[in-house]
Amino acid sequence: MLLSDLEKLDSDTIRQMCGDIYDDSAWLTNLVENLLAVTKIKEGRMELKMQPHLIEEIVSEALQHISRKQEEHIITVHHDNELLLAKCDARLIIQVIINLVDNAIKYTPAGSHIDITTTGDQDTIEIRIADNGAGVPDSEKEKIFEMFYSGSNPIADCRRSLGLGLSLCRSIVNVHRGAITVSDNQPAGTIFTFTIPAGEVEVHE
Fold it and tell me: How many Å is the maximal CA-CA distance in the chain?
């Protein structure tokens, strides 16, 4: 339509169409990246670059790549300790956070709260992404991590039925020897929690 009828369209219509094109392109790019990554992991072809990284920096980087629709939600971040170090492949953990926050954005209505909390000790780092949406039924809590599983949430559109994001999250967390779970938020909503190994500061003498 833009190519053939540009002169007939008003500026608001053009802006809306460009926004739709951007959203669909971003979704397709993310889909392909997720599919390639989960395939490499499952086939054992993913080379991990395990190094100490500040969790604060990982979360900050992830939020810079979140869907532009994040402006419709209230996202808050709380670090129990701003100097928390994780031993991980940073680009993969960034992708986990992107997928989980995007999931919260897409499955909750505009104006919802999304809270990211990081805690840890000398052995383990824990990252929680909580929302106050409709929640996930108990019957679907384990299934949503399966590749291509489609949940029954009525907010989801037809594109979400491919279900690669959460499957990739579990694969990435597993190769880091961590765990990922989903639970109920109170009084409403969902909490995704995953763990990864803590890192140590390397001292060079």
Answer: 70
Give the CA count within 13 Å in the CB-facing half-sphere of 17: 11
| Stated pTM of the model | 0.76
φ, ψ dihedrals at 149, nearest 5°: -75, 135
Q: What are phi and psi of 86, to 5 degrees?
A: -120, 145
pLDDT, tens digit, for every residue of 118-161?
A: 999 999 999 999 999 988 888 888 888 876 655 554 433 334 43
CB-based contact 134:107 (threshold 8 Å) = yes
Q: DSSP secondary structure string, 107-145?
A: HS-TT-EEEEEEEE-SSEEEEEEEE-SS---GGGTTGGG
Q: What is the C-alpha to C-alpha distance for residues 35 and 129, in angstroms, rounded to an integer?
A: 23
CA dist 106 and 124 (Å) reads 29
DSSP class per residue in 166-190: HHHHHHHHHHTT--EEEEE-SSS-E
Phi, psi of 57 (to 5 degrees): -70, -35
3-state secondary structure of 78: strand
For residue 175, how far is the Cα from the chain centroid? 17
Dump pLDDT digits (tens) for 79-104: 998 889 999 999 899 989 998 998 89
